[in-house]
């Protein structure tokens, strides 16, 4: 007896839901880490800008003290 099932191409609903669940779980795990790295990067940027500003002030003081 021949099988009466047609061959369908594509994914089943369960397969799609499993993939979406995995992607959502990964996003939930990674999102806090990404957000904290963004905050750390901003803090580092602020420190660098402060250091550059202080260095420029010191260079100006040195130039005024040395007559150049």
Provide an overview of this structure:
- This protein is 79% helix and 0% strand.
- It is mainly alpha-helical.
Helix-strand blueprint:
Layout: H1 13-66
Helix residue percentage: over 70%
Q: Give a quick account of the main beta sheet: strands, pairing sense, barrel closure.
A: none
**Mean pLDDT over all positions:** 88
H/E series: H
- N-end to C-end Cα span: 101 Å
Our Rg estimate from Cα atoms comes to: 30 Å
Proportion of strand residues: under 5%
What's the helix count?
Answer: 1
What class, by secondary structure content?
mainly alpha
Low-pLDDT segments: none
How many E-type strands?
A: 0
Task: Using the alpha-carbon principal axes, give the shape.
Answer: rod-shaped
Can you summarize this structure?
With 68 residues, this protein is mainly alpha-helical. The protein is built from one helix and no strands. The mean pLDDT is 88.
